[in-house]
Amino acid sequence: MKKKLEEICNRQVEREAYSSNLYLSMASWAETQGMSGVADWMYAQADEERVHFLKFVKFINERGGHAIIPALEKPPVEFKGVTEMFNEVLHHEQFITSSINEIVTMASADKDYALLNWLQWFVSEQVEEESSVRAIIDKLKLLGSHNMYMFDRDIMSMRTAGEATPQE
Ligand SMILES: [Fe+2]
Ligand SMILES: [Fe+2]
Description:
This protein has about 170 residues and is mainly α. It has helices spanning about 5-30, 35-60, 80-110, 115-145, 150-160. The site of one fe (ii) ion (FE2) has 5 residues, from α3. One fe (ii) ion binds near residues 49, 93 and 129.
């Protein structure tokens, strides 16, 4: 794999690892607010991001590069509320989508078809992730902040309904 492709894949290693920590921080905050359903959703999301992080690590090394395990920026600790937090999740996932798209563009320009093919899983995964977070935000709008109990109770069922488990 070309050096600049290895570098941009290592940038994604860092971003997926940060995503995992960000959602872990959101899980911890939700737990302190007594919202165990939201916390479970965020813990599960953090696990998924760790899988993405490891996928990039292993792929880089498999291609003869060297995956670098980065130091991570500290994620936010406090959140204004559940709606604000999920808006942040959507915003972050949109950032990750554009980050993946940048790698696709570069792989395509460099005719690295193996990388391009491998990235397709992430392209589809980002569609899934954005749509599942949008569904949650819609539900929040529907319920309003006075119905947080119901939202917290139901959120995990939305996850199992709308999401494919990541496979190799
Ligand atoms: Fe991810
Ligand atoms: Fe994600």
